[in-house]
Amino acid sequence: AKNPGSKVTFSFGSSATLATQIVQGAPADVFAAASPATMKTVTAAGAANTPKDFVSNTLEIAVPKGNPHKITGLKDFGDESRRIALCAPQVPCGAAAVKVFAEAKIIPKPDTLEQDVKATLQKVASDEVDAALVYKTDVIAAGDRVDGIQFPEAQQAINTYPMATLKNSKNPAVAQAFVDYVLSPEGQVVLTKAGFAQP
Predict the structure, then answer these.
(1) DSSP secondary-structure letter at 34?
(2) Were both Cys, which of 32, 67, 120, 146 would link to 114 (CB 3.0–4.6 Å)?
(3) Rounded to two decimals, what is the model's pTM?
(4) In the sheet that 52-57 helps form, which strands lie side by side, from edge to edge?
(5) What angle do CA 10, 34, 46 make, to 5 degrees?
(6) Sign of CA dihedral 43, 48, 49, 52
(7) pLDDT per residue as tens digits for the range 107-141
């Protein structure tokens, strides 16, 4: 609305997958990553301009609505009798989970490792698993399909999200305008409502 004639098309996916696609030449104007490590893939390849951190996010335990399997906290992830989903360690939510479990001195016993946080959350929403570790924002976005349980160790693995315009952008002015809007007070209000914290 602020940039008449512009149209924003989103492409969602695992940050690691999106970074690989950008490096391989996929057309895009802006890249927002769920971790500095995945952004580095793109900046190291010379495909992005200088990134700026725009939000942070923390992990939360997601359980099916009503918590039918009586999950009480992180320790349940070390119980082999529980059905557990985690993000694969090479994607940001998985890397954050590795850090959290190390901090809590818990060896997780996952039944499935998913390629992104949306697939992980879907396992909970469909009651295929008793619990999963996802971002707080994903629990909020799932609405009444899941419940979230906060845990103190999450503060040890806060993920900061960087965003950058891309060097091969066909619309560099509009790309910069989008980044500027996200970083503006108005943009930050939208992101705070979605459950993100300041970077």
Answers:
(1) S
(2) 120
(3) 0.87
(4) 30-32, 159-165, 52-57
(5) 80
(6) negative
(7) 999 999 999 999 999 999 999 999 999 999 999 99
